[in-house]
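Support case: zinc ion complex. Customer-provided input:
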Amino acid sequence: MPKVDGNAIRKIIFDNFNDIDVRFSNDEMLGYLNQMDQYKALDDVLDFEDVLLDMEKSGMLRPIAQNFNTRYYRLWNTLTPAKCKACGLATYFALNEESKVCPKCGAKM
Ligand SMILES: [Zn+2]
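Agent response - structure generated as follows:
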């Protein structure tokens, strides 16, 4: 299965769900991923469960419910834009997230 770039998920959440009162699901994120050029041509199922689990562990995503394969989340804190000093990637982090690491180059942020 093709792996999904964690930064793509962060951007989708920032652009569409960046509010601590908004509930959103992995299915909704998948809908946005499927509109992106790098993913929409793929026939395979996109695999981003690991990415979401890491975001739960870091303190960004708050899992609130699960119904079969649909998982629902809220944000603990809203995301703010950040730029990696090492590679220049524009990304997004929640204030409370631990060990902020660039999703592209792995540098500490
Ligand atoms: Zn970087």
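Residues 84, 86-87, 89, 102, 104-105, 107 surround zinc ion (CB under 6 Å).

Case will auto-close in a few days if no follow-up is received.
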